[in-house]
Amino acid sequence: MSTDPLLQPYQLKHLKLRNRIMTTSHEPAYPEDGMPKERYAAYHAERAKAGVALAMTAGSAAVSKDSPPVFNNILAYKDEVVPWIQNLTDAVHEHGCAAMIQLTHLGRRTTWNKGDWLPSVSSSKHREPAHHAFPKLIEDWDIERIINDFADAAERMQAGGMDGIELQVYGHLLDQFWSPLTNDLTGPYGADTLENRMRFPMDVIDAIRRRVGTEFIVGLRYTADEAQKGGITPEEGLEISKRLAATGKIDFLNVIKGRIHTDPAMTDVIPVQGMKSAPHLDFAGAVRKATGMPTFHAARIPDVATARHAVQAGLLDMVGMTRAHMADPHIVRKIIEGREEDIRPCVGATYCLD
Question: 136 lies in which domain range?
Fold first, then answer.
């Protein structure tokens, strides 16, 4: 039995993960007609075969028609996705790896002239600098419809055999509501209180739970500190984390720090070559300490030593090494075989973000 912290199993609800290394959600842009077909399954199966404990697929799968993908994302709003999700799940499960998927509505982080050419909607009336299209300020019937779309998509992923789902709550619609920087609404979903800003994400979580039951794993990948004046502060981020934990409906927290509304901002969330490694690791550890929740995190954790420290120091329960597995999909196998010196290093190049 190995004493390596990275190789210790982890119990997440009913799911036993074989070690502490995961790949976080990202989009290789391999879907065909919006479906994760053979190439998509093979991409994740290779890492599963080499020992990764959890593959968080998609980056992110779109739950609504008015969230047209700008990164060739999976279309989770189509019923025909279910058998393809089952194939993907089976390909990953075959090698002893858990499979989950990230769901989202892009909100203003898309454009009207994609997909079905529907207007983008958001809690903000201002365009996102990175995607330029001015969104329609979201209305009550949009909110009701999108809540139902999230529940429908979660049910499809459950039907496809996934072990769980993760909601994307940074830069996309759910976060646009709970960030004071992107909420121009009044009334029950307005910007005046944290409770109101969190209402829409909480309504989505409630709807998903009603649809998939209590056993299916549901987590969030969310920003707990926007690192910008007027945005979510670290203190408010910890309060958000505590409120999520207190619902009893969330099974893990996947912590992000920063914003992704511009390309420079994104490099703080996903640091690139030449930038500091693991800059937000201690903050993720603070969330874990404050909530007692299973805590995941990934932000330029490119090497085994940093990943091992994150787990051994009690900062994380599962450590994301996503770009590192683009550089070398066989990291876990090489750790097990005592061949860490053979791991192809990840330098944090920007190519895989483009």
Answer: 5-353
